[in-house]
Structure formats: C-alpha cells, structure tokens
Amino acid sequence: MLNRSTSRGFCLISLAVFAAFSLFAQSERGTISGTVHDATGAVVPGATVTATETATNSVITVTTSSAGDYTIPSLTVGTYTVRAEKEGFRPAVVTGLTLNAASSARADLTLEVGSTRQAVEVQASAAQLQTEDSKSSATVTNRMVDDLPLVVSGTLRSPFDLATLTPEAKNTGGDNNFVLGGGQAASYGSTLDGVSTNTGRALQMSWVASNAPSLEAITEFTVDTNGFKAEYGHAGGGVMTFVSKSGTNDYHGSAYEFLRNNDFDANYFFSNRAGIPRPIYKQNDFGASAGGPVWIPKLYNGRNKTFFFFAYEGFRNRSGATAFTTTVPTPEMYNGDFSKWVDSSGKQIPIYDPTTQVVGANGTVTRTPFANNQIPKSLFDPLSVKAIGVFQSGGLLTPNTGAAPGTVGYVNNNYRVTNGSQVNPI
Question: Going by C-beta distance under 8 Å and a sequence separation of 6 or more, which residues neighbour residue 68?
C-alpha cells in the first residue's frame, strides 16, 4: 500500500455493514458489553440491545442472554448510542459512549415499566477504572493526533512523537531504541487496522515514519503495555494499535503545510558574528485529506451505508551540506606518477614493481621500486584505463586545500567540500 518515497497516500472505502464473523488476526476493533436489569435489579433476558455509531448511523443489534447479559463485538472506533428495549418497558438509552481502539466498554441499562413511546436516556461517563479486562492501556485520541505539536526536523511527522507521551513508553534515541513496557528495544508489536506491521525494518523508527500512513489518516491509536491478549504474545513489552480514519455522513477534509526555510530561520550566533550567511534549509511537510459518504448524483446515495476517506502527505527537505574533507587522487596519479607521495616526515613512499618480486633462500621477499616512483602505463590494467577515462570525461576532482606538492596534505585529506545540499528523502 505504501512505499519509501517522498510522499504518502492513503485511501479507504468503508462499508457500514456489520456482521458476526470470526477474527483470527490481531484486531483493532472494540467490544461493548453490559447487563440489562429492571427497576428492581432483576435481570431482563430476551431484551433487544442496539448499538448505533453516531457518525455513520451504522447499527448492530443483539439479544440479551438468560442472565440478562449482552456482548457486541467487532465494533469500529467511535462514539456510540446503546438502546435496550423489551415489550412492557420504557426503552433505556445510553448516549455518548466512547469506544477506543482494541478496547472494551461497558454499558449497563435499566428498564422501567411504562410506555414504549417514552425512553429513559443516560449520558455515558468516562470509566474511572477499567473492569472489562486487566491490560494497561493508554489511548492517543483523534483530538490529540490533530492538536498536539509534532517534531518536524528533517523527517516526516511520526506516530512515535505521540506514543512517547503515553506511560511506560520511552525513546532513548536512534532507530532501534523505542521501548514499551520495559521490554527490549524495537521488540514491541504494532498493527494497522488489525494487520501486523511487525517486520525487521518496520520496527525502525525512521522506516515507520516514512512508510506508515500519514497522521492525518489515523483517527487514534492505543498503546498497551501489560495484560494484552494472547494474540499479541510475540510483542516484547507492549503493542501499538493504529486505526485509520473512515468517512462519515458529513463531508470533511483538511489541508496543511509545515514550512521552514531561510526566510523564517535566524542565523546562528557565531556565524552571524563572522558574517557567514545562513545555510540553505528548505523543509516542506504538506498534505490534504477528504472523507464523507459516497454520492453519485441520480445514481447512488451512500449515506448510512458507504463512505470514503483519502489522505495524502508529501515531504521535501533540502539543507546545505555540512563541510568536510576527503581524499581525491592528484592529477599526476592518473598517469601513474607517485613521485610526490610522501609521509609525515617528507620522505617519499616508494611504489614497488610487482613483476620484479624475488624470493630469497631464507624466504625473504624483495621487489624493486619503480624508477622515480612512476608506474609505466604499459603495466596499467585495461579495465583501469577505461575507468580512468570515464572519470576524466566526467571531470576530475582535484585537491583544493592549498597544500604544496610533496607534503602530506597534498595527498591525504586534500579536498574540502563546503557547498552543495542534502536532500531527504532521496
């Protein structure tokens, strides 16, 4: 779906049709469960319980068991309204129930005797203690994804920038030093919409940043560090569960640009004192997203049924190259002339003729130095001659440090790079 490039795209068409099916893979979906009672506290079997996702009006209905319990599995992330009904009772409704990624929520309902035309509505409140399971979990919600500032310093915005805000998450720096729950570095589990992203390279932070969907395409993610299900048993210390955004009954979208360049950046203090101009730095992280119901005029209206979501993020980064020195051949070396190749004391370093090798009676090996330290072109390998021709046709780099011939600096670290640019991604 995604590859390592200068841009990231994500497209999703979701059908708001729920059915009961078995999930054999790791799932990012959640569960709502609870018990239906009457006013005396007795359980109500056979009651109809309906969960409605408010953004898409997607509905799933179950019936309470003989013990008055119900469970609605495989629900997408979102806000739900849960309604319980049975003949002879007024319906009970719980509104504003938030279901996070790979989590469980509880909604107990109480039915009162009365007309079915009247309903008792209760606003759901955030649970102070999770009693449905024993895992330690922290959710980074859509509002946090949208509103919290993210580091954009030569790299794409990354979910790791937000994951480090959760308890028991730590980054000691570098690609392979992100830790969850005290586990080994880069040994955590990670999934996107229930699909495992665990590969050797996928756990490197830079790889995830360049290949994960844009944060604009993620609605939220959950970081579990203890007590998670056996299906995540391979995860060392914890698991990150990412959920992509989906379209809703309302059209919505966004456009953004994170910009840095020479006009906005101040010069460094010491460079400013020395009169050195600001180095080149141009960074653009830009993108857009759009989602809503699928609608084809006079043909199809997908409200409450079919939705789409699209997100694109592009990244361009160009900075002035850091000055450094390297070694390049001197012009005469291409002709086999090493007469100016000397050591730190100024003494010529001899080049020996391999064709004159002699092994003495005592096993010692001797060779004769080339005259004036120059290798005859007749001894050049034919492939080397062709390679040198290619170098010469492309323009040769020559020493530019100003070192005099016959000195160490003339042949070692003799080329200084002071301009150019670094482009990322390449």
Answer: 35, 36, 37, 43, 44, 45, 47
For residue 416, the one-letter residue type is R
| β-strand partners of 71 | 33
Contact 35, 108 (CB under 8 A): yes
The 10s digit of each residue's pLDDT in 116-175 is 666 777 777 655 556 666 667 778 777 777 777 776 667 777 777 777 778 878 776 665
DSSP annotation string for 281-303: EEEEEEEEEEEEE-EETTTEE-T
For residue 421, report the phi and psi dihedrals to the nearest 5 degrees: -145, 155
- Tell whether the torsion through CA atoms of 387, 389, 394 and 399 is positive or negative: positive
Instruction: Assess contact for 192 and 198: CB atoms under 8 A.
Output: no
Q: What is the C-alpha separation between 259 and 118, in angstroms, rounded?
A: 55
Q: Is the dihedral of CA 323, 326, 332, 335 positive or negative?
A: negative
CA-closest candidate to residue 94, choices 31, 41, 46, 49: 49
The conformation of residue 250, written as its DSSP 8-state character, comes to S
Residue 380's SS3 state is: coil
b/e sequence 173-201, b meaning 16+ C-beta within 10 Å = eeeeebbbbebebbbbbbbbbbebbbeee
Which residue in 73, 74, 70 sits closest to 83, CA to CA?
A: 70
The model's pLDDT over 28-40, given as tens digits with 9 standing for 90+, comes to 788 999 999 999 9
Q: Which amino acid is at 418?
A: T
Cα 322 to the chain's mean position, in Å? 27
C-beta neighbour count of 291 within 10 angstroms: 22
Instruction: Give the model confidence (pLDDT) of 177-217 as tens digits.
Output: 777 877 777 777 778 887 777 655 445 655 655 666 788 88
Largest CA distance in the chain: 117
Pairing of strands 306-320, 7-15: antiparallel
Q: Count of CB atoms within 10 A of residue 368's CB? A: 13
Q: If we measure between CA atoms, which residue out of 104, 105, 63, 101 comes closest to residue 84? A: 63
Tell me the two tokens of residue 277. Answer: 């101009």
Q: How far, in Å, CA of 80 to CA of 34, rounded?
A: 14
